């Protein structure tokens, strides 16, 4: 049997996750947890760079944690914690900064994009409005990963550069201190294939930044309204329709079983189903699938639920691993 690998991923805490996040990130991460050592954490200090409202930051962290638990994350099996609950992350970030070339950070996509926006706006100061948290973001992320000696980091493709930077930073450390201690050099695991991007209500990739998303646990009546408002053309009920060019059908195909999807496909093609009925079918499918999880979600986000204890127990386990790594790192660098 192959040795079990350590999987680690950080979850941005920006509002309630949507169906695309479920399909592209949550579901595969829960599947990976069945047969691997897994650590999943809420990247609250990364969120601090963009969220400056304390109440919202607090609420987002609880909402995202409750979502993962409601979707089936088993906190006995997976270490679920808040980044801020593991202070060793910040200690390691300082150590890593000392072996990281500033030029590497200058070339980071997120930082460059912020400078390009300033340039496009005609600003003479290209760093205007850019905080050091954004500049240091890749180093903090490398610390998250290396601290837990992760082997595999499942993330979206947009994060590939961050994983490459983490590997570069690990190699730089290992080159200097490898006689005493070496970090495992991690690799990214990215979603495969064309079918991995769920469309939003306007047909583009579902994303919070396009505001075309369906939040996982929105209230039933609001979900119904949102599904009914998905744009469709004016083909009459009795006319044949092309299921594959219809957003409600594409979404249905992700969440209904093969038999149900096939039945709907045949009726649309034969001209026996209108868009309204298709949307009712989509609403029922989403509601049947996520309704029970929504109830659990609501219990967990309520103040005083067991959520805070679960996160604290996860942080205690994560700190145990962090302390072991930091003892080796400190000895290797001569600060012990
Ligand atoms: P958003 O685009 O809404 O801001 P994020 O970029 O925070 O979402 O994505 C978080 C995770 O969810 C990533 O792993 C990403 O690959 C996945 N994801 C986001 N949107 C989709 C989608 N439409 N289809 C599949 N996976 C998605
Ligand atoms: N940057 C990641 C994102 O935007 C979140 C993140 C922070 C992360 N630290 C991490 C992901 C460590 C994987 C490993 O999605």
Automatic annotation (TrEMBL):
Instruction: Please name the CDD domains in this protein's record.
Output: TrpRS_core (cd00806)
The enzyme's first-digit EC class, named in words, is ligase
Superkingdom is Bacteria
Reply yes or no: does the keyword Heme apply: no
Query: Would I find Transferase among this entry's keywords?
Result: no
Which keywords has UniProt assigned to this entry? Aminoacyl-tRNA synthetase, ATP-binding, Ligase, Nucleotide-binding, Protein biosynthesis
Which Pfam families has this protein been placed in?
tRNA-synt_1b
Under the heading SUPFAM superfamilies, the entry gives: Nucleotidylyl transferase
Question: What Gene Ontology molecular function terms does this protein carry?
Answer: tryptophan-tRNA ligase activity
User: Which EC number(s) does the record attach to this protein?
Assistant: 6.1.1.2
Annotated family: Belongs to the class-I aminoacyl-tRNA synthetase family.
Q: What is this protein called?
A: Tryptophan--tRNA ligase
């Amino acid at each position: 049997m192959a040795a079990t690998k350590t999987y680690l991923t950080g979850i941005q805490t920006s509002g309630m996750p949507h169906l695309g996040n479920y399909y592209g990130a949550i579901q595969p991460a829960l599947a990976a947890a069945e047969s691997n050592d897994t650590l999943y954490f809420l990247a609250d200090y990364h969120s601090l760079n963009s969220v400056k409202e304390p109440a919202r930051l607090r609420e987002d962290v609880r909402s995202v944690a409750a979502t993962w638990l409601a979707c089936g994350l088993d906190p006995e099996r997976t270490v679920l914690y808040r980044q801020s609950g593991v202070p060793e992350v910040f200690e390691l970030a300082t150590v890593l900064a000392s072996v990281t070339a500033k030029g590497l950070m200058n070339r980071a996509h997120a930082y460059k994009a912020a400078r390009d926006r300033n340039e496009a706006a005609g600003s003479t100061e290209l760093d205007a409005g850019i905080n050091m948290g954004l500049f240091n973001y890749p180093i903090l992320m490398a610390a998250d990963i290396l601290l837990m000696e992760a082997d595999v980091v499942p993330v979206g493709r947009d994060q590939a550069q961050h994983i490459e930077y983490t590997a570069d930073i690990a190699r730089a450390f290992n080159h200097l201190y490898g006689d005493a201690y070496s970090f495992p050099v991690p690799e990214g695991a990215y979603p495969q294939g064309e079918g991995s991007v769920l469309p939003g209500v306007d047909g583009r990739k579902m994303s919070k930044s396009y505001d075309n998303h369906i939040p996982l646990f929105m209230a039933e009546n609001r979900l119904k309204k949102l599904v009914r408002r998905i744009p469709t053309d004016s083909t009459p009920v009795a006319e044949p329709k092309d299921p594959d060019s219809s957003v409600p059908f594409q979404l249905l195909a992700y969440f209904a079983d093969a038999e149900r999807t096939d039945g709907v496909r045949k009726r649309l093609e034969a001209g026996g189903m209108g868009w309204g009925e298709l949307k009712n079918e989509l609403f029922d499918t989403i509601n049947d699938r996520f309704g029970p999880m929504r109830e659990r979600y609501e219990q967990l986000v309520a103040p005083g639920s067991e959520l805070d204890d679960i996160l604290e127990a996860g942080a205690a386990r994560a700190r145990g691993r962090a302390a072991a790594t930091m003892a080796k790192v400190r000895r290797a660098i001569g600060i012990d």
